Amino acid sequence: MRTKLPNSNVSTDKDFTIKLDAVLFQQIAEGNKDAFRILYEQTYQSIYVYLLSIVQNKEEAEDLLQETFIRVRLYVDRYSDQGKPLAWMFTIARNLAYMRLRELKKKSFQEFETIQDMIGFSVIQNVEDRIVLEGAFQVLNDEERSIVLLHAVSGMKHKEIASILNKPLSTVLSKYNRAIKKLNQELSNNGKE
């Protein structure tokens, strides 16, 4: 069942999740603040986790999250409807993150303790999600980390992740399963100590 938000022409599902489509983007381009607020509320956590998996720094990820939404707001009228508005947003986020990494000349590998200090895992309130996040930074490579975090923490479906990362679904599923095995092995090893 579709409903309209009060004082808005933004449609939502029964469970109040927004349908991300060209109509929503058009409403944002027309200055509909409710539409932009809802877009932010529905997507900020997924984009934040994705940015965090790239830059591996809490403050940088927060700054880049804000920059991403500023760019979305500024350039929403340039979005060409290809049925993948979330992928468009993730592309903006990824480009900003890699630009920032180049600016900072960030090293690709860091000690887990350094990363843990920078990230501030308390941002993720669900304890299970936090454990997955901590484990991911310790044993997974960048691509595995992105896939696991987008699925486990943000709740995205593998098909959505494949679309966003521009990878075949089978590759995303394979890397996700391999990453989960690594995490399980790591958790098993930690439990024996």
Give the secondary structure arrangement, pairings included.
Layout: E1 3-4, E2 11-12, H1 22-29, H2 33-55, H3 58-75, H4 85-104, H5 112-119, H6 127-139, H7 142-153, H8 158-165, H9 169-192
Helix pairs in contact: 1-2, 2-3, 2-4, 2-7, 3-4, 4-8, 6-7, 6-9, 7-9, 8-9
What's this model, at a glance?
The protein is an all-alpha fold and 193 residues long. Helix content is 69%, strand content 2%.
Fold and architecture overview:
The protein is mainly α. The protein has two domains: 1-106, Orthogonal Bundle (Rna Polymerase Sigma Factor, Chain: A), CATH 1.10.1740; 114-193, Arc Repressor Mutant, subunit A. Helix content is 69%, strand content 2%. It has nine helices and two strands; from the N terminus they run ββααααααααα. It has a two-stranded antiparallel ribbon. A hairpin with a 6-residue loop joins strand 1 and strand 2. Helix 2 packs antiparallel against helix 7 (142-153) and helix 4 packs across helix 8 (158-165). The longest helix has 24 residues, at 169-192. The N and C termini lie far apart (52 Å). 32% of the residues are buried. Mean pLDDT is 76; it is low at 1-17 and 106-119.
